[in-house]
Amino acid sequence: MSIDDSMSTRVAQLRARIDAACARAGRPAGSVTLLPVSKTFGPDAVREAAALGFTRFGENKTQEIRQKIDALADLPVQWVMIGHLQTNKAKDAARDASEVQSLDRLELAHALQRRLHTEGRDIDVLVQIKTSSEPSKHGLPPEEAADFLRTVVRECPALHVKGLMTLAVQSEDSQAVRNCFRALRELRDRLKDAAIEGVELDRLSMGMSGDFEIAIEEGATEVRIGSAIFGARHYS
Questions:
Q1: First vs last Cα of the chain: how many Å apart?
Q2: Three-state SS for 27?
Q3: Within 10 A of 30 (CB to CB), how many other CB atoms are there?
Q4: What are the pLDDT digits (tens) for 88-106?
Q5: Other Cβ atoms closer than 10 A to 45
Q6: Contact (CB, 8 A) for 113 and 159
Q7: Residue 144 gets which letter from DSSP?
Q8: Edge-to-edge strand ranges of the sheet holding 123-128
């Protein structure tokens, strides 16, 4: 089997699992977007995925986005920042990313606003919420979300809030994982009820290769998938 066939097969199997999870949740097929996470994979892997129809790719580091932009300048693809974004890297994200899914503090929002104003750009953002107690996980505390959203709308007009993102606890306990995703959906519902002007909360980015089916059952509108598309990662 060629590399292309291998990725094609993985993507087909993945889409079938996504559709099955949607069916279990009583949701229509096609209601969940698949975001390939290309972090640590080289330009050739991105080219392969682009040939299968993907146009958006998730990355964890701004420097890796820049390297791939340079290597793949001929491809009409967009780069989504999904990793923790240091404030001093806001200038790079404002220049190169089409979207930031890991907005989790006002310092970062203001840094992005300043750089986007300089670039003459607006971008979509998702607010990352901490639904796990793990110290390694980043995210805004849920109880601060409403005030945070109001401040972003008021002070950062170049940032268009489209939804929420989270990372579930890393655990073999599927109920603990499910609780993280459910907490994000319930928070989104409460925030929608608050009717914060200038904020759209239609998108819930949650679920990765190991837990995306649970995320879909709990309301994910986008899943971030790396190894199930590209294969095992090899970290240097």
A1: 27
A2: coil
A3: 10
A4: 999 999 999 999 999 999 9
A5: 18
A6: yes
A7: G
A8: 33-36, 222-225, 203-205, 159-165, 123-128, 99-103, 78-81, 56-59
